[in-house]
Amino acid sequence: MTTRMIYYCLTGALFLVSYNLLAQSPRPASPTSLTYGKLQFSAPAGWQTQQKADMLILTPPGTTINTTAASITVFPPAARNKKSLSQWMDLALSLIRSDYQVLRSQKPTPNTATNGTKSLIMTELLGEPSGSGKIYQLYCAVATGSSAQLVMYSASNPIDFNRHAKIVNSVIESISVKKTSTVRRDEPPTNRQINDRLLFSRIRA
To answer: What is the value of pTM for the model shown?
Structure first.
């Protein structure tokens, strides 16, 4: 999966997302190991981490969630209620897309990381309701037993999306699932939680 390339024709230009071949994307020299919910992963060196509305948000060096053009958001576990990972992902993304127009969307693609962790990955382009901006998204859904977690990479333009794509790929490749967890709840998010998460997951162009 790491050599797979996904192509989009967006606004007359070719939008190329490569999971392992982007020369301008620097690789972190010494990533930091993080655990959030039931996921363990390597955070890019120098990236800032901040917890907001029960999400973990990572932003590039020198930026914050208010100033960045790109970010990685790790959502807490949510129960699958006997749904397949694909069905759960459809439901989770329907909540994220609720106030947006889907301009381009790729079907979820199975991915197996080098450590054996299985996930579903997809990209899509969302448009602001007012037509004032676009959001470039990559989603990674990981089954964590009876629950699942979503990792979302967002950027306000294709240049920033591609700039950090290699780093995002390294994060996805490092994901593993904890066998035990101290997470206090494992249930579907409430409408209030969904709204809070959307406030911090939107990046306007």
So the answer is: 0.73
CB 111 within 8 A of CB 100: no
Q: pLDDT digits over 160-195, tens only? A: 999 999 999 999 999 999 875 444 444 555 555 555
Range of the domain at 173: 5-179+189-201
CA distance 95 to 196: 12
Domain of 107, CATH number, reads 3.40.1000.10
- Residue 65 CA to residue 63 CA, distance in Å, equals 7
| CA distances from residue 138 to 29, 181, 187 in whole angstroms, order as listed | 23, 26, 24
Label residues 163-181 b or e (16+ Cβ within 10 Å = b): bbbbbbbbbbbbbbbeeeb
Number of domains within the chain: 1
- Whether residue 184 is contained in a domain is answered as no
Pairing verdict, β 147-155 and 78-79:
antiparallel
Euclidean distance between CA atoms 44 and 27, whole angstroms: 8
Q: Is residue 160 part of a domain?
A: yes
Q: What is the mean pLDDT of the chain?
A: 78
CA distances from 120 to 29, 165, 197 (A): 27, 17, 21
